[in-house]
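Q: Structure for this?
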Amino acid sequence: MPRIFAAAVLMLASTAFAQPKNATVDTVEIHANTPGATYNRHLFGQFAEHLGHGIYGGLWVGEDSKIPNVQGYRKDVIDALREIRVPEIRWPGGCFADEYYWREGIGPRSKRPVKVNTNWGGVTEDNSFGTNEFMNFTELVGADAYVSGNVGSAPPKDLQEWVEYITSPTNSTVAQERRANGRDKPWKLAMVGIGNELWGCGGNMLPEYAADVTRRYSTFIRAPEGQHIMKVASGANSDDYHWTDVMMKKAASAFDAIGVHYYTIPYEWKHKGAATGFDEDQWARTLVKTEKMDELLTKHSAIMDKYDPKKRVALLVDEWGTWYDVEPGTNPGFLYQQNTLRDAVVASLNFNIFARHADRVRGANIAQMVNVLQAMLLTKGDKMVRTPTYWAFDMYKDYQDGTVLPVDVTAGWYKKNEWTLKAVSASAVRGKDGVIHLGMTNVDPNHAQRISIKLDGEQAHEIHGRILTAARMDAHNTFDDPDHIRPVSYDGAHLSGGTLSATLPAKSIVMLDIK
Ligand code: AHR
């Protein structure tokens, strides 16, 4: 007998589940008999930069803080990140990375130099969160470490010794320095970034020069005997395909992966649009702009295919997410923004896009983890909220290292003014647990979608589901109402006589687990 979990706690407005009389039937066909690439767990990677309260106050409060902490790290943040199984964290930037001198962030904290964060708000950077603090943090969270090296303003020797400090099991002076700083065993360093945005804040380089610089710095990143550290080249800004072409043509042998950065900005750089209180035009334009990720990945991948048909080099979207105007009254250099149902929908659309490119796109880092841009978590004093984006990551977490099952979606169009996109987006992954996880998003904020789900080469016996939706497009969690929007059990799917169907309420994300 099919078992469909009934909605246990339907805190959400019942209107969210109402079906309009004119709902058409769309189809989602899952090709379970032709499995594709692995959905690399690194696609759920995070980014933590020295920016605003991304580090200080957001995850690091110091051992003497009244805020409950584990060795100086916020306990609530560690617990929340462990729950979504954060696979990897990129640090210390961003633009911050190419002005960061790792030696200033080791040793007794009271002796570390005090600097000015020139990129982000001109605030004091006391270096109290440095290499030991970051590497220990990744271990507490259970995540891989992705360290971005300073290529813009430090010599290669600096990066070489940083990697040695972190990873060397030898008795070299640098490794002994690590021991003197309280860490005997080397840490595991999964990835090193060869600079960040070398075309911009990382040094304003032209691609030909950046390719040479990348080859040079790559030479001196030395992993200990028998280990591999993934070397990540600084990638293109959005649709700068020339950058990818030159880097691949001239330097691909020097790296294992190349990045690409793409932010979803509803309007333009000077006036990006507000994080809350937006109208439907802004909802639609945001989602159309985020869907551009699909085109970017297709075109960058095609260029990479020319030079690397066997797909040895991975494409990493090592910065992505929404970028709005900062919240009124906050420091413009801190990039602090609220996070709503719209952001969760943006995340789910990107997760679905990543599935279509999983053979080449093997990692991504949302910007950023705590208190900055499209954050998982927002903190204020001793309070913390999980954002709708956090819940999207939670709903999709069983995709990690599963196998992509190709999906065909036949659906109508959602249109608002000049903005048009397919009303339904979907992806499916057979998780490592053997279960088929089907993520579906209805982007239409006004109409439900009825879906007929076809499963090729497989028979469904049991389904469970969770849904994230709300009455308002800008529904969000606040410090006073931290659970205003969160996933609940979903009772909109039906299995009868082997036929599977579902109704997606307006503006909703549904994750179905099919056995
Ligand atoms: O994420 C904020 C900034 O955006 C990063 O520091 C930089 O790499 C990008 O331009």
